[in-house]
Amino acid sequence: MAKYLLLKHYRGAPAAVNDVPMDQWKPEEVTAHIQYMRDFAARLETTGEYVGEQALSPEGTFVRYDGEGRPPVTDGPFAETKDLIAGWMVIDVETYDRALELAAELSAAPGAGGKPIHEWLEIRPAYGEQATATE
Amino acid sequence: MNESLLRELVPEVIGVLVRRGADFAAAEDAVQDALVEAVCGGSDGDAPRDPKAWLITVAWRKFLDAVRADTSRRRREEQVDAEPVPEGGGSVDDTLQLYFLCAHPSLTPASAVALTLRAVGGLTTRQIARAYLVPEATMAQRISRAKRTVSGVRFDQPGDLATVLRVLYLVFNEGYSGDVDLSGEAIRLTRQLAAVTGGMSGAGALSGGGGGGGAGGAEEVVGLLALMLLHHARRPARTGPDGRLVPLAEQDRGLWDTGLIAEGIGMLQAALARDRLGEFQAQAAIAALHADAPTAGETDWVQIVEWYDELVRLTDSPVARLNRAVAVGEADGARAGLAALARLDPSLPRYAAVSAYLHERDGDAATAARLYAEAARSAPNIPERDHLTRQAARLNALLRG
After folding, report:
1. What's the total number of domains in chain A?
2. I need a labelling partner for A94 at 20 to 30 A (CA). Which of B61, B303, B306, B388 fits?
3. Structure pTM?
């Protein structure tokens, strides 16, 4: 098994096919979208492939160390141009193809007009554990 | 009660319940419940004089409770009560059947691993979940799906020993480190398998063919056990105090466990003497030649290349060919190693790392540095990535003078 991180972006990913901002959807379309995501996670648990997930607020800030005794330097909230992550899900699957299949399913979540969003998700393999028998 | 002693009894007790008429999934649940009761002190802390009889009694009671609690199973309960306890069979057969069932070819490797650790190893779902870094609920689902998958498999069908060995090797090789030492657990389970297949006795219950293991059933079990022991013996030397990877050539051989090495080599020699070579025996032979060298410089690379030739013949594995190229580089010089490498697919995992190593030995530090950096970018785990990055950094510093 291998773990993959699925990343969903507010900004920074290529434009989705059904690219309508969520606040322009009908309320029941928002509800249907959220239910789809919940059902997806619940189903992954029953297949034994679910590890964890977290949705993230858009209110992000960059921070860095600025030297001994000085307060940290911050930059943000982010300007419109920056890459902005909306949330993540970690899955534990048998193959890379299975990870792609699941990401595609997540990308098909319904949006405006009840049609799939076809949004771009980023998929990143996690490092595995060092095998005992390779030297 | 002694947890590890009880865990050793798990496969046998599941077998007893199945022979009394329980289906595998229910029997496995009942034994797990009994085990949890024992470990959590539900039995008033009194150590029973006969732990096996105790576990059978408690597990059978748990099974009957579960059957009674489930009204939809009413009919089956009547059947179970009516059925006489079949005679014949024994704990050895039961244990072996359980290995076959848990590594049934219809299961995915991850499901087979999880089911084997629970039903043969007696680990709890929580322990297995922690070992593989997934939530307990996820692992519980993985195990119950696996049990559903094999629910139609008859308990007395002959199984596929080769699949069992692959599953045990996966447990040994690819486990994360939770509170359970999976490598140690894999060794325990392989030892037990060797005992029930007759691999340790010399008689070889499965060596006459028909064991389903292809070439050398029982011998391959012993080969795998020897391989695990020989790798396990080097474990204390494989990581530095800061967790960094220490390559074989740089390991402090004083840290190797000579007792395990002697045991592994002894077993391997006994298996090889029976002349039914398989891939695990060949791999163990290579590990034995490394373990046998007093210093890295005294390694018998010529013999190692010969064993890799056997391994390639047996498995036709590209990974074996890649490792063979390293061995050829040591035995016949870096140029010969690079020539062997040139015949392989560059997209193979660790191809760049091997190429970097051989180029450095060939005196081409610039190419080696570039390849080490490339290898670091595609490393499968963090210790390897960091090791390869340090190699690139070392050569780049050298090149800058």
Report:
1. 1
2. B388
3. 0.86
